[in-house]
Every structure is written in C-alpha cells, then in structure tokens.
Write a structure and sequence with these properties.
Layout: E1 12-14, E2 22-23, H1 24-44, H2 53-72, H3 81-97, H4 110-132, H5 150-162, H6 164-192, H7 198-235
Helix pairs in contact: 1-2, 1-3, 2-3, 3-7, 4-6, 4-7, 6-7
Length: about 240
C-alpha cells in the first residue's frame, strides 16, 4: 500500500534539479488560477437580468467577499476588494481541485501557505504605515494602557503581530494535510479487506463530503482573517 504521505511529494516535471523548475505543484497552481479565471469570465460574458446558474455562482462569490469586506473592514476596504477576492478564489480552487484523485493539493505544503500568508502580512503592514505613518507603532501599545505596562505589552503585542503569518499558514496547511492523509489511510483499507472493504469505502463518502466542506471553509477562514488584519491596519485597535 502506498504511503499516505506520497501524495504530497513535489515532482519536477521540467527543469529537473535546477533552481527554477516546473513541478506538479506549479502545474496545479496554474490550473487553479486558470480554472477560477475561466469560470468567472465564462459566467459573466453574457450578463443577464435573470442570471444563469454560472452567473449566479459568480455573483455568489462576489457577494460573499463584498459582504466580508464590508462587515470586517468597512468602507475603507472596498479598494482592496480585487486583492481579497483573488486571494479567496485562488485558495478555494487550490483546495477543491486537490480533492480530485491524482491531483496535487498545493495548500498542503507549508511553503505555499506561508508564502501567501507572508504576502498578506507584508501588504497589511505596508497599508498600516501608509495610512498612519509612524503612528502605526501605536498598534503595539493599546491606547489608554498605563505607561509602565509597556515593558510587558509591547513585546506581547509584537510577538502576536509577527506570529500572524505563521498561524495563518499553519491553519490552512494542517487542515488540508490531515484531511487528505485520513482519506488516503481509509482508502488503503478498501482493497486490503476484500469483501469487507465495503465498510471503509462507505465511510469514505461522507468523509469526502466533509473534506470538500473543509476545503471551502478554510478558504473562507484564511480570507476573513486577512480582512481582520486589514481592518487593524486601517483602524488599529
């Protein structure tokens, strides 16, 4: 039986062992971005007052992110809608396409999730300094707190702030990895148990549905936390 970890192996497809190589992870990230773009373009190319199913799906994606920004960032976050929407769609399609047998779940790699989280962290920090200037450093010392507590609060707030990309990336990586490992382990018992393999196979159906739900949920959580961080950058606390 193949190892449940084998599905996460990064295989060079073009370029071999060179520093710049096209891997299965690269291919599936391109597929995810292309599929998301194609879906939106195809769904909205014939916009109608009475939407088709595809147009309705695209509008649902739009409304979900628009409401997320409106509720968690405020009116000042509207100009960042393209970035937040792109982030959500990319993670969503990476997660969902990773459920296809034989595909590659790129969000099961910590380097991928950390790279996205690091970009969010950098973008939010730059926006914070652009909005408040050096006053953004007040982020690390809550307003109204006694001055003598600075020796405690500043390090705590700083560590909490710097840990954002770590917690954001580990949450997505861990959920996607654990779920796929569990599916692979249970699927491995199907051929081993012979006729009794029907039992783990039957369990795979609800588990797969649950994993699809988790794939969507994790894209939503990653995006909404990014909105919360953006709110802090614009309004501080």
């Amino acid at each position: 039986m193949a190892s449940p970890i084998e599905q996460f192996e990064i295989v060079p497809l073009v370029g071999g062992d060179s520093i710049v190589a096209i891997t299965n992870s690269t291919v599936w990230m391109v597929i995810a971005a292309t599929t998301a773009t194609a879906l939106l373009v195809f769904a909205m190319r014939g916009r109608a007052l009475v939407p088709t199913r595809m147009q309705s799906l695209a509008e649902i994606f739009y409304e979900v992110i628009a409401n997320m920004i409106r509720e968690n960032v405020g009116s000042g976050g509207r100009k960042y809608f393209p970035y937040i929407f792109t982030l959500f769609m990319f993670i969503l399609f990476c997660n969902v396409l990773g459920m296809i047998p034989g595909s590659m779940t790129v969000t099961s790699h910590i380097i991928v999730t950390f790279a996205m989280a690091a970009v969010v962290f950098i973008v939010v920090t730059v926006i914070g300094f652009m909005t408040h200037g050096l006053g953004y450093f007040r982020m690390f010392f809550p307003h109204g707190a006694p001055l003598w507590t600075a020796v405690i609060l500043v390090p705590v707030e700083l560590i909490s702030y710097l840990s954002r990309p770590v917690s954001l990336s580990v949450r997505l990586f861990a959920n996607m990895t654990v779920g796929h490992v569990l599916l692979k382990v249970i699927a491995g018992f199907v051929p081993l148990l012979g006729i009794f393999g029907i039992l783990p196979f039957a369990f795979l159906i609800p588990l797969t549905i649950l994993e699809i739900f988790i794939a969507v949920l994790q894209a939503y959580i990653f995006t909404i936390l990014s909105c919360v961080y953006l709110h802090d950058a614009l309004h501080m606390h």
